[in-house]
Amino acid sequence: DPNSAYAGQYARAYAAISTLFPAALGYTDNGAATGSNGAATRVATGTLTLSGSVLETQLGSDINILSPGGSIIVGSNRRDVLLPNQEGILTLAGGSIRSFTDGSVQLGQSRIMTTQGGDIDLFTANGDLIAGEGPKTYSAISPLHANCDANGYCPINPSGLVTGAGIAALLTLPGQDPADSNANLFAPRGTIDAGAAGIRVAGTLNIAALQIVNAFNIQVQGVSVGMPVVAAPPVAALSNSNTVAAAGQQSAAPSQGPGDRASVIIVEVLGYGGDTGDDARPETRRERRSRLDDYNPNSAVRMLGNGNLSEEQARLLTAEERSRLNALSAPNAAP
User: Fold this and answer.
1) C-alpha to C-alpha distance for 128 and 209, rounded to whole angstroms
2) CA quadruple 175, 200, 1, 15: dihedral, nearest 10
3) Measured between alpha carbons, how far is 90 from 56 in angstroms, rounded to an integer?
């Protein structure tokens, strides 16, 4: 409520934290005496790491985690072969999940999830809430099995459907009341990042942080309080921007240089091939034979001795050539 005197003030929350975990016992001094929100310097006493493991309830019980001097690392950043119901913090048949940490809550590829009803309440005094990068295509259906006690009482455990990653308060059975699946996420001194895994809430979401990142990946079926409102850009501004950009591209068109001139390619055809086998057509053979028998006097290659020489041809010969030719043409010349 922006009109409340306590809007944006978490002094009462930090006063309660300092009462339960006082600085005199070695915990972080969250400024309860000064009324400030959180501490400038943290005191680390331990971190809860659940990578590759699962913390779950199967019969409707709650999960409460207190980490006043550290963080919670629910999963690692690398992919593994574990199914969604084998890694994370889960309540499979109803039940809420509550946690208080001095540091951050990092999910990685894992999940914090309630199925079949149950709230999720996460508060970090001096850290962030990171929903992680787990894929939304994860899914696992736990088989029904009987849990028998020492007296022979065997109730059926209807484990809920576990899908995806991130932070999720889901309803996996028809007819359930969405009001039983709410989420309260608070990081007064840090960031709430929905990441790629996202935040899904079937009921109401209350969220508060210095910065909320990837809010588009937060899905709430009920009422959401504290969600940032992202205004869509005006259509007219987009049209003007596109027009200006197109005009700039046209004005910046490069001019043609010497290397952009048109090229001229000259092709000389030497021949189209042809069949030279014995099965050539008779017309082709007769034409080829007639070309061999004819003599072209205008050709670049001229023949001497093809018949009798004319006076003009004889004048082209040297005296020695004429004497030899006369000797060959004499009737009694020796061979």
Assistant:
1) 9
2) 110
3) 5
Q: Is 121 exposed, middle or buried (0-12, 13-18, 19+ CB in 10 A)?
A: middle
Burial degree of 132 (CB within 10 A; 0-12, 13-18, 19+): buried
- The enclosing H or E element of 91 equals strand 88-91
Rounded CA gap, 72 and 106, in Å?
6
For residue range 246-278, list pLDDT tens digits in order. Answer: 655 555 555 555 556 666 777 777 766 655 555
pLDDT of residue 312: 78
Residues of the chain predicted below pLDDT 50: none
Query: In angstroms, rounded to a whole number, what is the distance separating the alpha carbons of residues 156 and 158?
Result: 6
Taking the complete model, does pTM exceed 0.85, yes or no? no
Q: What's the pLDDT at 112?
A: 95
Closest CA to 202 of 178, 228, 232, 230: 178
Amino acid at 320: E
Q: 329 Cβ partners below 8 Å, 6+ apart?
A: none
| One-letter identity of residue 31 | G
Measured at the alpha carbon of residue 85, what is the angle toward residues 83 and 90, in degrees to the nearest 5? Answer: 150
Q: CB of 225 within 8 A of CB of 166?
A: no
pLDDT at residue 122, as a whole number: 97
Q: Under a CB-based contact definition with an 8 Å cutoff, are residues 200 and 164 in contact?
A: yes
Residue pair 67/100 in contact (Cβ under 8 Å)? The answer is yes
Residue with tokens 């809860």: 48
- Give phi and psi for 319, each to the nearest 5: -65, -40
Contacts of 39 (CB under 8 A, 6+ apart): 28, 29, 30, 31, 125, 126
Nearest Cα to Cα of residue 98 among 51, 75, 55, 66: 66
